[in-house]
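Posting for a labmate who doesn't have an account.
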Amino acid sequence: MSTRRSLSALVCALVACRGDSPAALTPVASVTVAPLSYTALIAGTVQLQATARDTAGSPLPGRPVTWTSSRPSVAAVSGTGFVTALATGATTITATSEGKNGATAVTVAPVPAAPSVLVGAGDIASCPPTGAAATAALLDTIPGIVFAAGDNAYPSGSSSDYANCYAPTWGRHKARTLPAPGNHEYLTAQALAYFRYFGAAAGDPQMGYYSYDLGDWHIVALNVEIDVSAGSPQEQWLRADLAATSKRCSLAYWHQPRFSSGTTHGSLADVQPLWQAMYDHHATIVVSAHEHNYERFAPQTPAGVADPVNGIREFVVGTGGDSHYNFGRPLPNSQVRDNTAFGVLKITLDAGSYTWQFIPIAGQTFHDSGGGVCH
């Protein structure tokens, strides 16, 4: 018996007769959590690590830890320290072991809004719609709002032209298209087929002009096939519309360009009042078509004087697929010209700035790109 008692005493001394491991005798003095702080986007995740430590700061592995979030609606934490960001705000994630706490601050930020995209062209679909089919294929790969800048369906913008030439190509993007009419639309009386095809997206058929906001930008679609003279209802509406917007950046598109180095139509002085209204309200970009080519101008005044501070940058994008027109002598401030490629202009609209890309159809090589800031 004495031998058994001696053996029992020896074992008891080794394990402290408590059924615990020797390490359990060292109490937890502190808990640290890594990382000490973390910023996540909504729906983001992070795995936190908690370490129990003794008074000397040495790790005590194997100690059980519980996790809590001070604002679980902002970020939830699992029993293993896996954090999921749920809503914008800040929360404290706490790890507890043997009554000692460690914590990390988690900030949840909203997912940044994707830049808004406006993409399109004018002078688009004739039959057979070979060029329009190729530019429509580009739209298949580019998200955003599609603008159709007039002369969308040749030869006369009739119901059959829209059904047979436009609908099989650009028509598959109709649900995201906000158009402007061209002179060929008005070869059908009062452009009725155009307004019937696009419906409410084309605005009031008695006007054909309207505006909308796209991200941080105010966009205006105008109808230059009706009266645009100074004091006309459309010009007065445009001035009131621009005065009312809270957006810093604005862009307009319409069919006939104020400036063009093309020889078929060239510059259209009749639209000067619209340019003047846009300039007076610090607009940034005007996009037109009508000339079947691509041309980019430096920022300029309504009179065509270079103005890098307050001027409007004009793009002529008559490259939707119908045909190509020639250039004459380049106008002042004309920076880039091409009449070899069909393609679309993609404008990425960000807060206070923009970038552009001319994207050609498959097999063609002309490109143009750049960026600028709002006034």
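Reply:
Got it, the structure tokens are right above this. The first helix runs from residue 2 to 15.
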